[in-house]
UniProtKB/TrEMBL annotation:
Organism: Streptomyces pakalii
Highest taxon listed in the record's lineage: Bacteria
Annotated spans, Disordered: 196-220
Name of the protein described by the UniProt record: Glycolipid-binding domain-containing protein
């Protein structure tokens, strides 16, 4: 069960935004990630609880930030309920998308488990609903993911496979690189792995989402 700590930074000026203390683990029905986020001063900011099925689809998502709350799951695309800090207003949303996204490293791992790309896989287009901090406002975006390289690094526990992904925002053309080992993000824009107590869990290869319109919502 990987357990550790990420530091989070502003994408533009690299201002420290806080830390995310996490643990995650594969199970008989999929994979789960749980974390707590804190500010640079140590104050509690929010939490993430994400569970995936064996195909990498989000079967349960619960986000908390600034007293806002989101609960979601894969249902006719993705469906969610967003509740305001007073708890008196709840707004439901549904988009024919593949997955959720956000600032947490959990969502990068979730996408890698959904796509299961290999270096021979074509670039894959996906539609995601991303929740923006600090009020968890939903926004639908299209991305493309490509696995550029997989490299084995020797460790005391055997070879560690590090995957290098190129992720592109299709609305702006902006590209960035994400490095993932199993179910741990080693580095990504705004994210750095600061501490890891146990080795990452291995991931499965071989995607069933090479064509987004097979058994999932069409990303077009």
């Amino acid at each position: 069960m990987p357990r550790g700590r990420y530091s989070l930074h502003d994408l533009h000026d690299h201002t420290p935004l806080g830390e995310e203390h996490f643990h995650c683990a594969p199970g008989p029905s999929g994979w789960r990630y749980v974390s707590q986020t804190t500010s640079p001063s140590g104050d509690h900011l929010g939490s993430v609880d994400l569970a995936l099925d064996e195909l990498g689809r989000p079967i349960r998502l619960e986000l908390h930030a600034a007293s806002w709350q989101v609960r979601g799951a894969a249902l006719e695309g993705v469906t969610w309920v967003r509740t305001d800090p007073t708890g008196s207003h709840a707004t439901e949303g549904n988009v024919r998308a593949h997955a959720f996204a956000g600032t947490s490293p959990a969502f990068l791992i979730a996408m890698s488990r959904l796509l299961r790309l290999t270096p021979a896989s074509p670039t894959t287009r996906v539609r995601v609903v991303t929740f923006t901090d600090p009020v968890l406002a939903p926004r639908t975006v299209d991305q493309s993911w490509a696995l550029m390289n997989s490299e084995a690094h020797p460790t005391d526990n055997g070879p560690l496979i590090v995957d290098e992904y190129q992720v592109s925002a299709l609305d702006t053309g902006e590209q960035h690189t994400v490095h993932i080992a199993g179910d741990v993000v080693l580095a990504a824009p705004g994210i750095e792995l600061e501490h890891l107590e146990t080795p990452p869990s291995p991931r499965a290869y071989g995607s069933d989402l090479d064509e987004p319109d097979t058994d999932r919502p069409d990303a077009d």
